[in-house]
Write a structure and sequence with these properties.
Length: 374
Amino acid sequence: MAKVVISGTGVFTPPYSVSNAELVETFNTYVRKHNEDNADAIARGEAEPMVESNADFIVKASGIEARYVMNKSGIVDPDIMAPRLRQRSNDEPSILAEMSVDAAQKALKRANKTAADIDAVLVACSNLERPYPAIAVEVQELLGIEGFGFDMNVACSSATFAIQTAYDMLRSGSVDCVLIVDPEICSGHLNFRDRDSHFIFGDVCTAIIMEREETCTAKGAWEILGTRLLTKFSNNIRNNFGFLNRATPEGIGAKDKLFVQEGRKVFKEVVPMVSQLILEHMADEGLDPKDLKRMWLHQANKNMNDFIGRKVLGRDPEPGEQPNILQEYANTSSAGSIIAFSKFSEDLKEGDLGLICSFGAGYSAGNVLVRKRA
Ligand code: CO8
């Protein structure tokens, strides 16, 4: 079977950063006003007072210190508390396509490739801004790529599922070079008025170039040794936004049309599921977790990553063995492990073994075992 490599990656980082302190200030202003406006009902016991958020809690519970967003003014305005993005005309690039093109150009440069080398585009992310035409086809058009493109969504595991899809296509010979992009505007589907989750997500876009070994001219590419995907149905992370919302009496205004989760249950159920997936996958590939030089784990929660690292390695991970980027980017869904991989992989040496691993809604989890080339 042909060997397949990841020959380049790229990251588009949005222009605005929002600190925990800024987010909490907005949230608490909203809470105080809400409680004042509802003081009588609260006094009568007919309504519960809202409770303020806390920046120290956020860092302790998640490791998140800030997040990048495509629009800041709306998010930090207590009267809006949502991103405000201009409606673009059909003649302009859509916002997800624009982010994708930026990340793709960076990945192409690192892979030593041009758009003419690509023959398939996969847009893999949690939230697509429209059902059709596919964002991937628009990215293809904007970059001048021949061939085909399609969109796919497996929530936080979209990127790793796309890597396996591309891996299979490249090994079968149906394509020669694939561009994967993961444009995530998570702020668009985050309820900034929900104390339990208002701090969780940020926006970003990552890109990956994959090809067969024989066409790769980039230095320090990563050979894919194997992939493994897993899904198991769970309602603990859910978003009921969809095309049938307008057909229901509640419409699109209901709270469950945004991101909702049972965070503690997710934590408890996903940590063992992912640890087991990694250990079984490595055993089946004849690889020892002790030989892993680095793990680029899904970026949802620092404590969760520490648990998984300990289970997989059988000891506390050393600093740098599983770099986190969530302190700066927060949870960026499918893009998180790819940001970590893109930013913290160049220093490794030829022959070093690494693991990209995603996990999230579905539940879904995806492993990509990689070895550094010369
Ligand atoms: N400020 C202060 N205190 C708070 C806050 C807050 N903001 N929120 C909760 N608390 C309090 C609670 O009231 C509670 O108090 P008490 O003990 O008195 O009842 C206490 O803190 C502890 O609450 P929790 O048990 O809820 O807190 P945790 O320690 O569990 O931390 C987390 C909460 C951070 C959410 C944690 O459970 C977690 O990270 N879980 C894993 C979540 C995860 O990985 N989710 C993946 C979702 S992402 C995904 O799959 C992609 C979806 C697609 C993207 C959609 C884009 C929007």
